[in-house]
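#struct-pred
JK: can someone run the complex with inosine-5'-diphosphate? inputs below
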Amino acid sequence: MKGNITFTMIKPDAVADGNTGAILSRIEGAGFRIVAMKKTQLSKSDAEKFYGIHRERPFFRELVEYMTSGPIVAAILEKENAVEDFRKLIGATDPTKAEEGTIRKLFAKSISANAIHGSDSDENAYIEGNFFFSMRERF
Ligand code: IDP
Ligand code: MG
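RT: done, structure tokens with the ligand placed:
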């Protein structure tokens, strides 16, 4: 069912602030079905691997430090047009540029501690989902 799956993480700032429930409620309210979910904490090597594409970016060290600073909630979500619709729901990377009503506008603290991750393509949704879960054909 290509196109119907995306991957998310509720990031350490949002989990630490007690916003997990409020964010999940918005995700479900927007029509996404949670097909797998777990709370865990990334090791340094997990975070470096997950964000490997950003290795050369100036913020990479800050990003790894932040993403390992506390527990995250990882989930696979299902909905028609999941990747694009979820990116709309979470808003721009920089919360000061995110639209009103988006999850980042509501819950993010900064461009780094921006509350939530959302996959940017179908291909990455599968790669990222498989990083935390064993995705089978039915996904
Ligand atoms: P995205 O999460 O909206 O897809 P990406 O450009 O893929 O944004 O960056 C991945 C993550 O790296 C962001 O969500 C944010 O946590 C962090 N990040 C991105 N740009 C910056 C920056 O300029 N300074 C600090 N952290 C950043
Ligand atoms: Mg990205």
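RT: quick notes.
Residues 67 and 78 are 24 Å apart (CA to CA).
The first strand starts at residue 5 and ends at 10.
JK: thanks, will look after standup
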